[in-house]
């Protein structure tokens, strides 16, 4: 094998390893879920099918990639929409300056801008208000289209503390 072919092969492998899709781990499960767990968050903050992520370990700036946009309903009163790219900053027990995730409360779509873990609860902030949910609601990843209960086609109930002003 010529040195040109070996160099080209090495370059292709290097580019492949740096691509967002290559962030998938063994068994087809993306490492983005494991990265969330490394910051003390459950993997269920992201829906199934995340394809990869980027993380600047110095600043905490991250990007998570989904295979297209995603939406589903929970508890009949919450609808969630994820863009194909979710941005923000991550640190231990805290996601800040989020973009790419929206929740419908009553008739209004609001951006989820922050998630903070406080013990066994996750507090989601939309800026002017927040809601806390038991962390055990997020041990499983929701699925685009049907949320947590895809077999029966019904939406799942969340244990929640209603939105409170911040």
From TrEMBL:
Signal peptide positions (record): 1-23
Listed PANTHER family: F22D16.19 PROTEIN, T31J12.3 PROTEIN-RELATED
Keywords for the protein's UniProt record, in alphabetical order: Signal
Source species of the chain: Punica granatum (Pomegranate)
Domain of life of the source: Eukaryota
SUPFAM superfamilies in alphabetical order: At5g01610-like
Name of the protein in its database record: Uncharacterized protein LOC116190355
């Amino acid at each position: 094998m010529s040195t040109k072919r070996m160099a080209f092969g090495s370059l292709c492998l290097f580019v492949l390893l740096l691509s967002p899709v290559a962030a998938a781990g063994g068994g087809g499960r993306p490492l983005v879920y494991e990265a969330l767990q490394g910051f003390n968050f459950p993997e269920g903050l992201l829906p199934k099918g995340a394809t990869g992520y980027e993380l600047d370990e110095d600043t905490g700036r991250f990007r998570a990639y989904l295979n297209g946009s995603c939406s589903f309903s929970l508890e009949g009163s919450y609808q969630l929409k994820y863009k194909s790219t979710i941005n923000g900053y991550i640190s231990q027990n805290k996601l800040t300056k989020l973009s790419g995730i929206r929740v419908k409360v009553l008739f209004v779509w609001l951006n989820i801008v922050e998630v903070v873990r406080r013990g066994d609860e996750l507090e989601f902030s939309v800026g002017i208000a927040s809601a806390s949910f038991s962390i055990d609601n997020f041990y499983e990843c929701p699925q685009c289209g049907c949320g947590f209960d895809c077999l029966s086609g019904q939406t799942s109930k969340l244990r929640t503390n209603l939105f409170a002003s911040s």
